[in-house]
TrEMBL record:
Alphabetically ordered keywords of this record: Cell membrane, Disulfide bond, Glycoprotein, Glycosidase, GPI-anchor, Hydrolase, Lipoprotein, Membrane, Plant defense, Signal, Transmembrane, Transmembrane helix
Topological relation to the membrane, as annotated: Lipid-anchor; GPI-anchor
InterPro entries, A to Z: GH, Glyco_hydro_17, Glyco_hydro_17_plant, X8
Gene Ontology CC: plasma membrane; side of membrane
Main EC class the enzyme belongs to: hydrolase
GO biological process: carbohydrate metabolic process; defense response
Gene3D superfamilies: 1.20.58.1040, Glycosidases (3.20.20.80)
Organism in which the protein naturally occurs: Acer yangbiense
Designated name of the protein: glucan endo-1,3-beta-D-glucosidase
Ranges that cross the membrane: 490-509
A Pfam family of this chain: Glyco_hydro_17
Phylogenetic placement of the source organism: Eukaryota, Viridiplantae, Streptophyta, Embryophyta, Tracheophyta
Length: 510
């Protein structure tokens, strides 16, 4: 579809060459046409708001249900972090534009093996691809890696990124898909920085300069955008100069001045820091896609549904306004992917317990707050006909000697999700032994309500009375098949998370 600007140019040329001198009727007609084009431009921005769909959940909502959720909320673009065949099959025929992801763990192999890259493209792109949707998948991008330049990763993935990008691009070319599918690399929010917090001093991390120039040259040559995470929530948590109001787009926030540029929110500040960084290495006009942006709803102070709603409303209103940023006025991001669609109870909590609560929807597809994705429907449509395990919970047996209950809770949380118990979380105010019951139930639900999973040395008790208190929800997990429960890399993820979870639980129960 042509942009409004292109269409206006065509109309203007037509008027000059084909039409007689304008009269009042023709001018009115022209005004109506241009007004309609302006309206089309507004809709195109709405369509550019998309979501990330992560699947690191112990009991994931079935992919077909998630696709129904996307369609019922008029979400037309989705970014994946891998290429799960069940997910791609569910997306087939949906006409939803898809970004397929390659995990960081595969970069080294793709860097060294062209054959492996070709095999991956065949199995995960060619097999499903359809340019028009049809019965296939509208794959738009292949995202090589998931924030491989994150500071905490060190040099674990960086040396393999460019080689993997080139081999995946070559594989797409050999599959005759290079004209339809673009290769991108999602970059973390800490890829670029400004020691003074001023956008005019923005630059890429020095150790990344060579790699970034190579990546940007690759993207520029193919007219591909730069994918980047912007995280006002983490900026607020880590930068004492960023106030909560500034992060939430509030009009009352104190603005930040950079020379003659005035910044009224954290998003614009981060975005223009990146714009300067791109200019510093010779790519001032590079298109930008915000690959991840959101606000968590639990697991930390200021991570609540009401705060997330304020942030998301401010963000979407800002994007719809097309005001752009001080360095790129009237030029908003090419696309913006909200992070995330659903909560994921198996995400790493290394950054914080809030990492498991980025979802606009809960793990079972229920909307957390009002949100307008640009279709004039502020009420989110929930997932329908969701199948749960029976209405049973595991709680502490108050008739037992509870002197060792804390040790049992620590054991439970070493593999279950107790992130809501952390300071600022929705269950933080649970008094002892209520917090013990929460830990027991989390473990019990994660293990499919198997009776033995509510034992804990005789301290556990199965009940049919919902123990939820106020905003602290004692969940009942989704009913899934055993094969689905073990699908993908769940067991591997669980082993990796044991150590981190145990540390978190020691803080919670001591």
């Amino acid at each position: 579809m042509r942009s409004p600007r292109e269409s206006e140019g065509i109309i203007s040329k037509y008027i000059q060459t084909k039409m007689p001198p304008p009269n009042m009727t023709s001018l009115v007609l022209l005004f109506i046409i241009l007004s309609a084009l302006a309206s089309m431009g507004s809709d195109s921005v709405a369509e550019a708001i998309a979501v990330n769909w992560g699947t690191k959940a112990s009991h994931p909502l079935p992919p077909a249900k998630v696709v129904e959720l996307l369609k019922s909320n008029n979400i037309t673009k989705v970014k994946l972090f891998d290429a799960d065949p069940l997910v791609l099959q569910a997306l087939s025929g949906s006409n939803i534009a898809v970004t397929v992801g390659i995990p960081n763990s595969m970069l080294k192999t793709f860097n060294s093996s062209m054959k492996t890259a070709q095999s991956w493209v065949h199995d995960n792109v060619t097999r499903y691809f359809s340019s028009s949707g049809g019965n296939g998948v509208r794959i738009e991008y292949v995202a090589v890696g998931d924030e491989p330049f994150l500071v905490s990763y060190g040099e674990q993935f960086r040396p393999f990124v460019i080689g993997a990008v080139i081999n995946i691009q070559t594989a797409l070319t050999k599959a005759n898909l290079a004209g339809d599918v673009k290769v991108v690399v999602p970059c973390s929010f800490d890829t670029f920085q400004s020691e003074s917090s001023l956008p005019s001093k923005g630059h890429f991390r020095p150790e990344l300069n060579k790699t970034m120039i190579e990546l940007l040259a690759f993207l520029s040559k193919r007219h591909s955008p730069f994918f980047v995470t912007i995280s006002p929530f983490i900026s607020f948590r880590t930068n004492k100069n960023i106030s909560l109001d500034f992060a939430l787009f509030k009009e009352t926030a104190r603005s930040h001045n950079d020379s003659h540029k005035k910044y009224k929110n954290s998003f614009d500040l981060s975005y223009d820091t990146l714009v300067t960084a791109l200019s510093m290495v010779g790519f001032p006009e590079m298109d930008i896609v915000v690959a991840q942006i959101g606000w968590p709803t639990d697991g930390a102070a200021n991570a609540t549904s009401s705060t997330a709603e304020t942030f998301m409303t401010g963000l979407i209103d800002h994007l719809h306004s097309k005001s752009g940023t001080p360095l790129r006025p009237r030029k908003p991001p090419l696309e913006t992917y909200i992070f995330s669609l659903l909560d994921e109870d198996q995400r790493s909590t290394a950054t914080g317990n809030f990492e498991r609560h980025w979802g606009v929807f809960t793990f079972d597809g229920q909307g957390k707050y009002h949100l307008n994705f640009g279709q004039n429907a502020k009420i989110l449509v929930n997932a329908q006909n969701v199948e749960y395990l029976p209405s049973r919970w595991c709680v502490v047996n108050n008739n037992k000697d509870l002197s060792n209950a804390t040790a049992s809770a620590l054991e439970a949380c070493s593999s279950a999700d107790c992130s809501a118990l952390s300071p600022g979380g929705s269950c933080y105010n649970l008094s002892w032994p209520g917090n013990i019951s929460y830990a027991f139930n989390s473990y019990y639900q994660q293990h499919d309500q198997i009776p033995n999973s509510c034992n804990f040395g005789g301290l556990g008790l199965i009940t049919t009375v919902d123990p939820s208190v106020n905003k602290c929800r004692f969940s009942v997990e989704l009913r899934i098949s055993h094969s689905t429960f073990l699908h993908g890399s769940y067991i591997f993820q669980l082993m990796i998370l044991l150590t981190a979870n145990a540390f978190v639980c020691i803080l919670i129960f001591t």
